[in-house]
Amino acid sequence: MRFYKARFEESGEPLGNPGCGWYHIYSYAFKEVSGRVFPSPDLRLLSGDLCQSGESLALLQFDIGFFREEDLTAGVLRRMEELLDCFRRCEKQIILRVTYDLEGRGLWREPESEALIHRHMEQLGPLIRARAGDILTLQGIFVGSWGEMHDSRFLSESAMSRLVLTLYRAVEGKCFLAVRTPAQWRAIAARLSGEPGLVEKLTLFNDGLFGSETDLGTYAAVHGPDAAGRWSRRRELDWQSRTMAGRPVGGEAVASNPPVSFRRAAAELEKLHLCYLNSAYHKRQLDFWKQETVDAPDCWRGVSGYDYIGRRLGPRFVVRDAVKMGRALRVVIENRGFSGVCGETDCFLIVEREDGTREERRLDTDARAWGKKTKLPVPLPPESGLSGPLFLSLALRSRADGRPLRFANRDAAGSVPLGRLKGRQK
User: Fold this and answer.
1) How much is the pLDDT for 328?
2) pTM score, two decimals?
3) Any residues with CB less than 8 A from the CB of 135 and at least 6 apart, and which?
4) Most buried one in 3, 177, 391, 423, CB count within 10 A?
5) CB under 8 A, 24+ apart: contacts of 83-87
6) Helix-strand-coil percent breakdown of the chain, rounded to 5?
7) With contact defined as beta carbons under 8 Å apart, do 58 and 24 qualify?
8) What is the separation, in whole angstroms, between the first and last Cα of the chain?
9) What is the C-alpha separation between 159 and 260, in angstroms, rounded?
C-alpha cells in the first residue's frame, strides 16, 4: 500500500486537556458548633459558578484550624465529602490543600501536638482515597502559614518526613504529594527513599514564582547551599528540569518590580515542567502578560503573553511528520508544552474504512515516556484481507478514566489524522 500523509499544522488554540491549565481558589473554613457544621454553602450556586469558570482545575482549600486541639468530627467529614462531590459533578480536577491557617498565622493556628496532625491525616485518608481520580495533587502537609510550609514548628527534616509518610500511607499512595521547595523535597526524599513508590509521588508547588530573585525564599539568596539546603536560582532550576518531569508541578506568580515578561516566564516555567497556574493572582503580573503580544512567525503570532503561557501549561503534543517504513509508520511527535504527561496515558491507532467502520489498536507506548521530540513506531494493519483506502489517525486517552488528551494539530478534535493508505500491500 502507498501512504499519503496528512498535512501537519500546529494550532495555537486552547486544548482543554485534563490535569493542566489555569485555576481559581475555593476556600472553606470548617467548624462545628452545637452540632451545626459550618460552612454550609449552597451547592447549587457553587455548581453554577464552577460550570461558568471555563477552567478544568480548581484549588480547593480546607481550613481545619478550628480543630487544632481535637479530632475532626463526622459532620465536618461529611461536609467535605459533599464539597468534593460537587466539584466532581462539575468535572473539575482538584488541587487539594488542607491547612490550619489561611490568615498568615501558621505558628498560632496549628496544633501544638504533631500527633494530632497525623491523626487528622489518617481521618482524611479514606475521603481522599475514594476520590483520588479527581485529585491532581495534594499540596503541603497541613502546616505553615496558608499551608505553604513556612512559619511552622514542624518543618525540621525529621518532622516533615514523618508527616509526608503518614499522608502518603493515609491515601495509600494514590495521590501526588507536593511540598513547597526543592530543598524540602530533597531532604524528604533522602529520608524516605526506602518507602516503596513514595519518591515517585513526591512533587513541588511554588507560590512565589517571579516574586524575587529567590522566588520569595524558594531558592538561596547566595550561591548556596545555605543552612536550609537551598541552592542558587540557576542551579535549582536546572535540578528541577532534570527531576520534576512526569510530576504535576504548579503554583502562582507574584509580581516583581518590574513584572517579568512572558518570554522569560515561559523559559523558566518550561524548566519547572509547570502544569497549572493561578489565574487570579498576582493581578499586576497577569495583567502585564495580558498586555504583551507574541510576535513570532508561527501559530502564536498575535496571541497575548497570558494566553501563550496558559496554553502551554502541561503537555502540548504536535504531530510533525509520518513516514512509511516497511510495515510501520514512523510518527514524529513534538511536545510544545511546559511539561509531559503525569498519569498513565495510552496511545491508539485508529483505522477507518470507506464504509465508516473503524477499529482501534492500542500501541505499545506510554505517553509519560515521550520527550520534547519522540519518534513513535506505529505498526500498520496486516495486509491479509485488507484493501484501501484506509484512513489512519492517532488518539491519546488517560488509562485511569478514559479522558481524551488532544493533540495540538489543526483539525485534531478527537484524534489527529496521519494520512491514508491506498491500494493493496505488496
Assistant:
1) 95
2) 0.95
3) 93, 94, 95, 96, 128, 175
4) 177
5) 83/28, 83/41, 83/43, 83/46, 84/60, 84/127, 84/131, 84/134, 85/131, 86/43, 86/46, 86/47, 86/50, 87/50, 87/58, 87/60, 87/134
6) 30, 30, 40
7) yes
8) 7
9) 36
Whether the CB-CB separation of 322 and 332 falls below 8 Å is answered with yes
50: amino acid identity, one letter: L
222 and 267 in contact (C-beta within 8 Å)?
A: no
Confidence band for 356, pLDDT divided at 50, 70 and 90: confident
Contacts of 188 (CB under 8 A, 6+ apart): 157, 160, 161, 164, 179, 202
Within 10 angstroms of residue 131's Cβ, the number of other Cβ atoms is 18
Q: How many CB atoms lie within 10 A of CB 246?
A: 16
The set of cell numbers assigned to 387 is 484493501
Query: Coil, helix or strand for 351?
Result: strand
Average pLDDT over residues 226-240: 96
Single-letter amino acid, residue 327: R
Distance, in Å, from the CA atom of 50 to the CA atom of 53, rounded to the nearest integer, reads 5
With a pLDDT cut of 70, the percent of the chain lying above it is 98
**Residue 327 scores a pLDDT above 60:** yes
pLDDT for residue 405 is more than 80:
yes
- What is the arithmetic mean of pLDDT over 356-371? 94
pLDDT of 51 higher than 90: no
Three-state DSSP at 345 gives strand
Q: Which residues are CB-contacts of 140 (< 8 A; sequence separation ≥ 6)? A: 97, 98, 99, 147, 148, 149, 178, 179, 180, 205
By the 10 Å C-beta count (0-12 exposed, 13-18 middle, 19+ buried), 374 is classed as middle
- Give residue 302's region: left, alpha or beta (phi > 0; psi -120 to 50): left
Whole-number Cα distances in Å, 342 to 137, 154, 166, 356: 11, 29, 23, 34
Burial class (CB in 10 A: 0-12, 13-18, 19+), 313: buried
The residue count of the chain comes to 426
pLDDT at site 354: 86
Query: Among 258, 266, 309, which Cα is nearest to 285's?
Result: 258
pLDDT tens-digit readout, 155-205 = 999 999 999 999 999 999 999 999 999 999 999 999 999 999 999 999 999
Phi/psi of residue 164, nearest 5 degrees: -60, -45
